Amino acid sequence: MAEIRKFDFSKTYEEVEIAGEVYQIEFNDESMQRYLSKIDEFHSESKRLNAIDSSKLSSKEQLEVFAEIQESVKDMVETIIGQDTYTPLYEKSGQSVMGMMDLAIYLADKIGERNKKDQADRKKKYVTKKKKNVPANKNS
Fold first, then answer.
1. What domain range is 70 assigned to?
2. What is the pTM of this model?
3. What is the pLDDT, as a whole number, of residue 130?
């Protein structure tokens, strides 16, 4: 009787606990593309907003910049852990945009770590298999 080999797919998500609630971060191809695009956008927007000299702005303009920051953070968080997750987490953060920005950076780091790990794992498997299949050089 022939031996049957078994293959199982690994899960395409990771669970993270944020303020006592468990959220799933999906790591399928479509989600990763969306996350990486959103992280780039968030980084660019953060650089733009940080370059603004708020001391030269009126109080109304400062509030507008604050609203832009809050919207950028909200968009980042909800892209990664799901729609309608920002407001309850904002409440749990003590209504702190800075706390939510820390969360957005944590999530971006999590995505980056997973992306690097996946690339390293694939590279390791490919290089290892490739070396095993390469015949020894007889001229050495």
1. 57-116
2. 0.80
3. 58
